[in-house]
Amino acid sequence: AQTVTQSQPEMSVQEAETVTLSCTYDTSESDYYLFWYKQPPSRQMILVIRQEAYKQQNATENRFSVNFQKAAKSFSLKISDSQLGDAAMYFCAYRRSVNGGSNYKLTFGKGTLLTVNP
Amino acid sequence: EAQVTQNPRYLITVTGKKLTVTCSQNMNHEYMSWYRQDPGLGLRQIYYSMNVEVTDKGDVPEGYKVSRKEKRNFPLILESPSPNQTSLYFCASSPYGGAEDTQYFGPGTRLTVL
């Protein structure tokens, strides 16, 4: 079974600075999808960024980018120019690329709580 | 507006009193699922549904039931709630559930079982 590990329960960053959140995962598969979700105090789950394992290029969405190291099974999220609105719980998630009902679930890490200091 | 809605958003109940948390999506998605979120555990899948009348267990199905009689609705039923079901619940949907699909989450339901 796949597992996702976020080793940093909490992180903090100064406004306008850059922060990197870590995520590692365990899988024996060669193709899969990885995601970062943001959960602000409103508790809504918001997709931040996704990465397809067969794509070597790291995904980027505005101030958010990932460092995807497939061999190391590492998928870190970098937030540049941090803003107060970035404060949230961040979850790393894995999904298989194989079709079929049970394969469509997201396997989540335990989350990293990010605080942004003004 | 495309969205997944859940009701109620907050619920406090007592042990053994049957309850239903509703989930509805207006995007004509075939795949729907329920997750629970607990501190230090992340989100875990409870049940999922590939289409109308097609449901199956996720990782933590004990104590829950679901039904999918209409494409847009996927209620979560707790027939005899217990305190260990106190949690934050999320409904999610995606077009077909395929690997390339993006899952859309509802706003969450905070359930407390006393």
Helical fraction of chain A: under 10%
The total strand number of chain A stands at 12
> If helices are DSSP runs of H or I spanning 4 or more residues, what is the number of helices of chain B?
0
Stretches of chain B where pLDDT falls below 50 for ≥5 residues?
none
Number of strand elements of chain B: 11
Short structural summary:
The complex is a heterodimer of chains A (118) and B (114). Chain A is mainly β.
Overview of the molecule:
The complex is a heterodimer of chains A (118) and B (114). Helix content of chain A is 0%, strand content 51%. Chain A is built from no helices and twelve strands. Chain A has strands spanning 3-5, 10-14, 19-21, 24-26, 32-39, 46-52, 60-61, 64-69, 74-79, 88-96, 107-108, 112-117. In chain A, the strands form three sheets. In chain A, strands 2, 5, 6, 10, 11 and 12 form a six-stranded mixed β-sheet that branches. A four-stranded antiparallel β-sheet of chain A has the order 3-9-8-7, with no helix packed on it. Chain A has a two-stranded antiparallel ribbon with strand order 1-4. By secondary structure, chain B is mainly beta. Helix content of chain B is 0%, strand content 50%. The chains are: A mainly beta (118), B mainly beta (114).
Keywords:
heterodimer; A: about 120 residues; mainly beta; 6-stranded mixed sheet; 4-stranded antiparallel sheet; 12 strands; about 0% helix; about 50% strand; B: about 110 residues; 7-stranded mixed sheet; globular
Q: How would the blueprint of this fold be written?
A:
The complex is a heterodimer of chains A (118) and B (114).
Chain A: E1 3-5, E2 10-14, E3 19-21, E4 24-26, E5 32-39, E6 46-52, E7 60-61, E8 64-69, E9 74-79, E10 88-96, E11 107-108, E12 112-117
Parallel strand pairs in A: 2-12
Antiparallel strand pairs in A: 1-4, 3-9, 5-6, 5-10, 7-8, 8-9, 10-11, 10-12
Chain B: E1 4-7, E2 10-13, E3 19-25, E4 31-38, E5 42-51, E6 54-57, E7 65-66, E8 76-78, E9 87-94, E10 104-105, E11 109-113
Parallel strand pairs in B: 2-11
Antiparallel strand pairs in B: 1-3, 3-8, 4-5, 4-9, 5-6, 7-8, 9-10, 9-11
